[in-house]
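Exam revision sheet. Question 4 asks you to relate a sequence to its structure. Input first:
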Amino acid sequence: MDKPKRKPGRPPMLTGKRTRLIKAKLTDEEFTKLLEIQKASGMSRMEVIRRRVLGGGAVVAVNTAELLTALDTIGAELGRAGNNINQLARHANVLNRQGRLAPEVATEFNRLFTDYIRIQRELEKNIRGLLRAMKHS
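Answer key, structure tokens:
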């Protein structure tokens, strides 16, 4: 017996097939805005419209080039701050060995360093949240 021939290509969808077509008229300004959102989000035009209309998740318009530039700048600043902290700690250790480090200086340094670590962790948490939101949008 001959096997039935299988059609080449993707198997037919059993559920979730989109069969309804909607047309909408937009002004030039509205269409330009839609294109900007589409380009910035990296989604298809229809996915942008579906998410906006049906609430399948907010469309976050992110200019990835600007975001990467800002993250590079932040990373460079964190690197410089880390270098400065290391230099201050080395200098404080030298003064401490010589017995010339005032206790108030060490206390203030520890307070400021604790604040710095808290801010850095908050920044890292916010960046992870942003990346997660971009991944799921």
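Marking note for examiners. The two ends are 50 Å apart (CA to CA).
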